Amino acid sequence: MNDTNEMTLVEHLTELRKRIIWVLVVFVLALIVGFYYASPVIEYLKSNPLAGGVPLKSFHPSDALRVYMQFAFVIGAVVTLPVALYHIWAFVSPGLRVQERRATLYFIPAAFCLFIIGIVFGYWVIFPMIIQFLAGLTTDIGADPNYGIAQYFSFLFNMVVPFGFLFEMPILVMFLTRLRIINPMRLAKMRRIAYLVLAVVAALLTPPDFLSDIMVMIPLLLLYEISIMLSRIVYRKQLKEDEEWQKSYESEAEVNPT
User: Fold this and answer.
1) Kind and range of the H or E element at 198?
2) What is the pLDDT of residue 68?
C-alpha cells in the first residue's frame, strides 16, 4: 500500500515536471519570436501620441538590447500564458468531476482575454494619465521631460503588466470556486479586507492624487464584486450537481442493494 502511494506521488511529480518543461520550451520559442517582432512593436509605441509624445534618449550603449529583451520577454509571456493555463488545468483536472472538468476548460480562453483587456486598460487609461502627471511635475521644476528609452519602457511595463494580472481576478475566483477552495460566502465576508487591499494597490499604481486613485480603484472594486457574483453562480451550479449526484447515487443503491 505504501509503495503504491509512493509510486503515485512519483508519477504526479513526473507529470508536473513534464508539463513545466513543455511550458518552458514554448516560452523559449515565444521569446525568440518576441525578439524578432519587438522592433515593430517598439516603433508603434514610440510613434503613438497616446502618452504625449515624450522624446526618448539612449543613455547607455546597452539600452537598445535591454529594451529588445524586455519586449521579447513580455511578448513571450503573453504567448505562453494560455499554454501554461492549459497545463495547469490538465494537471488538476483528473481530480475533478466530468462536469467540473468541462466547465473549467472554458476558463483558459476567458483568462487570456481578461489578461489582454487588463493590459489594454493599463496602457490606454492608466499609463497616459500617469506619464502626463509626471511630465507636468518635471516641467514645473524647470526640467525637460526627456526620458531614457530603457527607463521609459521599464516604467511602461511596470505600470501596464500588473493590470493584466489584476483583471484575472474573476476567472481565478471562478476556478477556485470550482475546485471548492473558496465560496461566495467567504468572499463576501472578506469584502472589507479585499477593498482595503485593492485601495492600497490602486494607490501604489497611480500618481499621488485622489482622482487617479479613484479612477483605478473603481474598476478593481467592480472586478471584485463581479468575482463574487460569478462565484455565486458557480457555487449554485455545484449545489445542483451535488444534489443530482446524490439522487443518482441513492437510485443506484436502491436498484443494486448490497
Assistant:
1) helix 191-205
2) 93
